[in-house]
Design brief:
It contains three helices and no strands. It has helices at residues 2-21, 30-51, 53-61.
Length: 78
């Protein structure tokens, strides 16, 4: 967590410096940054699913129209 906070602090410091000297930031537009956030979220989701295979299999194999099998009664009526 500390590296992320240090990276954020460094980015903020550079942003303030750019703002003070009037230089336009070479950073990509916000839409590109949102896309990168989506990429990271997707990678994290795959990592989570690999650690929890039951979640992945239930998501991939469940169908909205599937009928759950019912168990037959143990003692059928005579």
């Amino acid at each position: 967590m500390l590296p992320y906070l240090l990276s954020l602090a460094a980015g903020l410091a550079v942003g303030v410096a750019y703002g003070l000297i009037g230089v336009k930031s070479p950073a990509p537009p916000i839409i590109a940054l949102v896309g990168l956030l989506g990429i990271l979220a997707g990678e994290m989701a795959v990592s989570y699913w690999r650690g929890h295979p039951a979640v992945l299999s239930s998501l991939l194999h469940r169908k909205s129209f599937a009928v759950e099998p019912t168990k037959a009664p143990a003692n059928p009526p005579a």
